[in-house]
Amino acid sequence: MSGLIAIVGRPNVGKSALFNRIAGKRIAIVHDEPGVTRDRVTAEVEWQGRPYTLVDTGGIGLLRREKSDDIITKAMLDQVELAIEAAHVIILVVNVQDGISPLDREVAQRLRRGGKTVLLAVNKVDTHRAESGVDEFATLGFEKTFPVSAIHGEGIERLMSTAISLLPADAGRVTSDAEQPIASAEESESPGTRRPAPLKIAIVGRPNVGKSSIINALTKSDRVIVSPIAGTTRDSVDVPFTVETAGVLQSYVLIDTAGMRKSRRIEDSVEFYSVNRAQESIARCDIAILVLDAVDGIVEQDKKVADYIVENRKACIVVVNKWDLVAENVRKAREEEIERRDKKTRTEGTKKTLTTLGEFGAWVQEKLFFLDYAPVIFTSAKDGFHLDRLLEAVRYVAAQLQQKVPTAILNRTINDSIERRQPVSAGGHRLKFFYATQVRQAPPTFLLFVNTDELFSDQYKKYLGAEIRRAFGYEGCPIILVPKARPKTVAPIRKYDPERAQAEKSSGPRRSAVKPAAGKLRRPRAGARPNRPARITR
Ligand SMILES: Nc1nc2c(ncn2[C@@H]2O[C@H](COP(=O)(O)OP(=O)(O)OP(=O)(O)O)[C@@H](O)[C@H]2O)c(=O)[nH]1
Ligand SMILES: [Mg+2]
Fold this sequence. Notes:
This protein is 33% helix and 18% strand. With 538 residues, it is of the alpha/beta class. It folds into 3 domains: 3-179, Rossmann fold, CATH 3.40.50; 199-401, P-loop containing nucleotide triphosphate hydrolases (Rossmann fold, 3-Layer(aba) Sandwich); 407-507, K homology (KH) domain (GMP Synthetase, Chain A, domain 3, 2-Layer Sandwich), CATH 3.30.300.20. The chain has a 6-stranded mixed sheet, with helices on both faces. Helix 13 crosses helix 14 (458-472). It starts with a strand and ends in a 31-residue tail after the last helix. Bound molecules: guanosine-5'-triphosphate (GTP) and magnesium ion (MG).
């Protein structure tokens, strides 16, 4: 059973601070500047054993008549309307230090018309003197008034106990597209809940490439704000999302993030925090979707974001969005190319224009060569082009992240690779491999026992990584190879050990992980084959 409690109020009254205080962690950006939170932020919270969904509506915006043409304000107003529609209990936050503003009155009026249960939280009651200002708010016409200090955590207990008691007993989970409850990974992993944690997918990229549009298109809702103004998304917003394929229900949390700009262009501290939160989102995600703009191509900042994904060793899918804007030109170029080919008019040495998605994909991978493990998908959030492929890629990469390579097959693959290409010796010493094992699935991490790790060059690491990829796929995932040297103090296994020889005589040869004399990996049992999965097709 879960109900929905929405926090509403005009900008800068302390909604986000209250949200954080109740949710118990720093989720929303709190900043002393009006209109900082522009999207709703949702969290699944528990108060005295009762689970419910808490929504920070992101400010009711300015008076309609004051700035009716401001699209962000309008979008914000729409979001609040949505939250009001979906909530069981609404907490209206006002600021005791400002007194009642005309906007408070407008909001209160709108809420009273809405007919939902409203609790009035008079915030910033940090001093005794401030307490006397609380009575003034009675004129807003709400029965239940709660003086609180979100920053100091005062009065929250009383407010929330009342809010919870007012949730309808049968309030089921809110399941509309517009307001699905969020189940964060940590919560899902908590003991007692058996549900697997939904996969966290961070949508990242430069400002204005269409990150929020992709989320809205995938969830078929207006869950996050989209606007042509770069820098619309300020906070990271978690959007729960469920898709059913072939009868299997998959749950994800899509994380909308702020566009990341060059740090020297960051204009204010709010943007600094936004970018910070976007980076945090990459750090906590399972898969990062790097969104590029088809019209702009790949610019320096795209590479920076890509770099950040690689640094964090995250699985990744590259999305080239706004394909609708270039599709027509690409189609024409393709026709011309075919015509040229038919007439054989292309002269030697002329550069071939890219005309197929496959060619474009290869070009993107070449440009982002350090992220070349990521599949490239071309989409249009506007007309829905290839969004199904994007979902397919997400499913595929998620499955790759769960792959566990049997040790025997892994060792045979590495052994064969070494046989095909020996490591180069340095100063008379050659790198020797003893044994390999997969120690982690996400990201796929392999421990390689070697004689000396200093001899394991980056080049050879790259070669072995590529060989593992060739054998097992791991498309979309970085492959991490960790060489582990045999400690110098440990002597190699003695050539002759009478006790061991005796034991082997009676029970057959004992399996040994380390075989220094052979200098190569032990062969796995015959018949074991690497199962390389099919690639994602564009
Ligand atoms: N033609 C076209 N326009 C798009 C597409 N996706 C997004 N847009 C437009 O691009 C603009 C920016 O979209 P947003 O979704 O707000 O971009 P964002 O990446 O979330 O931007 P920030 O939050 O500012 O970083 C809006 O005007 C969208 O309507 C697309 O596939 N095709
Ligand atoms: Mg956005």
